[in-house]
Amino acid sequence: MASTQIYEKIVKVKNSKQYAKRISAIMAYALYLAIWIYAGILNPPRSILIFLGGLLSCALIILLTAKYFFLEYEYSFFHSTLSISKIYGKRTRKLLNEADMTELILIAPATEENIARADALEPEKRIIAVSSEQAENIWLCVTGEEDEPRILIFIEADDRSLSILKSCAPHAFVKNL
Q1: Is the pTM of this model over 0.70?
Q2: Distance (Å, rounded) from C-alpha 26 to C-alpha 128?
Q3: Strand, helix or coil for residue 120
Q4: Tens place of pLDDT for every residue, the chain, 177 residues?
Q5: Considering only CA atoms, which of 73, 67, 88, 68 is closest in space to residue 132?
Q6: What percent of the residues of the chain are helix, what percent strand, and what percent coil, each to the nearest 5?
Q7: Are 102 and 168 in contact (CB under 8 A)?
Q8: Which of 27, 120, 132, 143 has its CA 20 to 30 A from that of 64?
């Protein structure tokens, strides 16, 4: 039973907003280099140093910013704990939330009716950890821990993650599935 309670799932973000960010960044990098090239043309005696400075600074900017254009979400089910992390560039991890699954008060598919039901519970925060808004199998979970703020979490659940959620919090599932 313990082996079925340990599971990790990674979801890559694939939406138009991410593609727009990538295209905008490439255009900004090209504009940045064009400015350095123009400055080098205006100052011929030092043009090689200016070109080199432009290339090195552009490479540094790309190294520092490229990780933000490749996002993933990780759902970790470890016994009765659900951890949701955001992964930048497959290297940097940021923990978004950690919830005890036994204290979830609502688990349901993300339909308009169920989102309205979750909003009626007055969550203080929303975490949307899905690849895109049109993805299949988007489920919502509402945390209900005592003395903690309620959080509405959207995840892409597969069969295994749903079975783990059902085994940990059968009382939280919507009855009219």
Answers
A1: yes
A2: 27
A3: helix
A4: 444 578 899 999 988 888 899 999 999 999 999 999 999 999 989 999 999 999 999 999 999 998 888 899 999 999 889 999 999 988 899 999 998 888 899 999 999 999 999 998 889 999 999 998 888 889 999 998 777 789 999 999 999 999 999 888 888 888 765
A5: 73
A6: 45, 30, 20
A7: yes
A8: 132
